[in-house]
């Protein structure tokens, strides 16, 4: 199944944990692994703290400093910074599913990371059920 994510900034982290939980509930699968995968080359998936929004700001400020938007890149589309960030963050995460619940730590949330927004994005959620 797929989740739609609407972003509003060029670089942004959006907490999609509740949307992933809803997708898992709809599947009725209780145990297995949940694969959450961005379907884009300029949007990533990461797991990090979703309690203090300052964490997202610090992550984005740091990644933007390390990989500036314009750094004499060769890619004609002009968004190489976004492609590089996705390769560093990774396009997907794999989360254990136990008794119908995602196994995440108290402070952990699943984020879609927009690196070339604003856009409407698609995230694929695939559940691999225990046999
Ligand atoms: Zn590109």
Task: Write out the strand line-up for the largest beta sheet, numbering strands in chain order.
Answer: 1-8-3-5-6
The ligands found in this model are:
zinc ion
CATH class: Mainly Beta
Kindly identify the CATH topology: Jelly Rolls
Structural class, judged by helices and strands? Answer: alpha+beta
How would you classify the quaternary structure? single chain
Largest sheet: 5 strands, antiparallel
Low-confidence sequence ranges: none
> Cα-atom Rg, whole angstroms?
15 Å
Q: Give the proportion of residues in helices.
A: 25-40%
CATH superfamily: YjbQ-like
Counted beta strands: 8
> How far is the first residue's CA from the last residue's CA?
20 Å
Topology pattern, helix = H, strand = E: EEHEEHHEEEE
> What percentage of the residues does DSSP assign to strands (E)?
35-45%
* Total tally of structural domains: 1
Give the secondary structure arrangement, pairings included.
Elements: E1 2-6, E2 12-15, H1 17-27, E3 32-38, E4 43-49, H2 53-66, H3 80-89, E5 92-98, E6 101-102, E7 108-114, E8 120-129
Antiparallel strand pairs: 1-8, 2-7, 3-5, 3-8, 4-7, 5-6
Bound molecules: zinc ion.
Zinc ion (ZN) binds at residues 75, 77, 79, 83.
Care to describe what's here?
The protein has a single domain (2-129), classed as Jelly Rolls, CATH 2.60.120. The mean pLDDT is 98. It has 3 helices and 8 strands. Helices cover 27% and strands 37% of the residues. The protein has helices spanning 17-27, 53-66, 80-89; strands at residues 2-6, 12-15, 32-38, 43-49, 92-98, 101-102, 108-114, 120-129. The protein has 131 residues and is an alpha+beta fold. The strands form 2 sheets. A 5-stranded antiparallel sheet has the order 1-8-3-5-6, with helices on one face. It has a 3-stranded antiparallel sheet with strand order 2-7-4, sandwiched between helices. The site of zinc ion (ZN) has 4 residues, from loops.
């Amino acid at each position: 199944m797929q989740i739609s994510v609407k972003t509003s900034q060029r670089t942004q982290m959006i907490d999609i944990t509740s949307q992933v939980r809803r997708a898992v509930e709809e599947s009725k699968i209780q145990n297995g692994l949940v694969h959450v995968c961005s379907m884009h080359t300029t949007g990533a998936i990461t797991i990090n703290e979703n309690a203090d929004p300052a964490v997202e700001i610090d992550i984005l400020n740091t990644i933007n400093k390390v990989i500036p938007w314009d750094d004499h890149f060769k890619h004609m589309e002009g968004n190489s910074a976004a492609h590089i960030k996705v390769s560093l963050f990774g396009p997907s995460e794999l989360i254990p599913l136990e008794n119908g619940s995602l196994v995440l730590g108290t402070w952990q949330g699943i984020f879609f990371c927009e690196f070339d927004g604003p856009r409407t994005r698609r995230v694929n959620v695939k559940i691999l059920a225990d046999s």
